[in-house]
Design goal:
Blueprint (H helix, E strand, L loop, with lengths): L12 E9 L11 E10 L3 E8 L2 E8 H6 L14
Antiparallel strand pairs: 1-2, 3-4
């Protein structure tokens, strides 16, 4: 299972992690200076959910945005018969 939303295709994106030093100008310093940047990954908030696809229940990864929007159609569970 890939680290990708089944519904919208959201996946990891790259960016930079920035290291800074110095005192901010508004606190009386000469300003913040960037000392180094390193590559990092921004990962989506993926949750495993059971989804009904073509009449079958399948476990997939869905981002929380899709779950909140209601794009994810969860399977209806049949009630157990009373004895």
């Amino acid at each position: 299972m890939s680290k990708k939303c089944f519904f919208c295709g959201k996946k990891s994106s790259t960016g930079n992690s920035i290291q800074m030093r110095g005192l901010a100008k508004k606190k009386g310093g000469i300003g913040k200076k960037i000392t180094s940047t390193t590559k990092r990954l921004f990962k989506p908030n993926l949750q495993p959910v059971k989804v009904e696809i073509k009449g079958k229940t399948v476990k997939v990864l869905a981002c929380t945005k899709c779950i909140k929007k209601g794009i994810v159609k969860k399977p209806a569970f049949a009630k157990a018969p009373k004895n």
